[in-house]
Task: inverse folding
């Protein structure tokens, strides 16, 4: 140190690449927490379909396994501490995975079509509707074409 030579080392602002360092830290954090860009509100290259898919993947791969671990912990460690008071009970959760509205509509339409075809072939209407998870319906009779009122006397909206 006493006989050493001093050489100045300058690092310019350009050498530091602040923008790239900022993006690197953001991407490293997203990878560490397994979060997508859309979940942080960074939507420069995300559309609705990608966003919905990322939310579903996050729920399936991250949230549900975490909930399962909590459920096991509570059911196997905490609940037994209550002895007989805990019998017959369990901790559970509602599935956080977002549903697909298009598939749900298609399933409902298919269920109604299948129920109608079975009822027209002679199956019991109430049992058929219950089998497909549809609510029971009451038949009021066909509406009168002139008044729009069914045979039960109730008007139709």
Result:
């Amino acid at each position: 140190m006493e006989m050493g030579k001093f050489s100045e080392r300058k690092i310019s602002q350009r050498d530091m690449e602040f923008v790239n360092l900022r993006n690197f830290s953001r991407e490293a954090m997203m990878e560490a927490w397994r979060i997508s860009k859309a979940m942080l509100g960074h939507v420069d290259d995300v559309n609705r379909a990608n966003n919905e898919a990322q939310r579903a993947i996050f729920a399936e791969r991250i949230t549900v396994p975490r909930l399962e671990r909590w459920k096991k912990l509570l059911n196997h460690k905490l609940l037994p501490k209550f002895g007989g008071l805990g019998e017959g009970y369990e901790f559970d959760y509602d599935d956080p995975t977002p549903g697909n509205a298009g598939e749900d509509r298609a399933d409902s339409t298919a269920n109604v079509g299948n129920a109608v075809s079975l009822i027209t072939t002679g199956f019991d209407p109430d049992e058929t509707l219950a089998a497909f998870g549809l609510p029971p319906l009451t038949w009021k009779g066909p509406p009168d074409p002139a008044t729009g009122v069914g045979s039960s006397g109730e008007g139709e909206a």
The chain has a mean pLDDT of 82. Residues 102-150 form one domain. The radius of gyration is 31 Å. The CA atoms of residues 51 and 124 lie 44 Å apart.
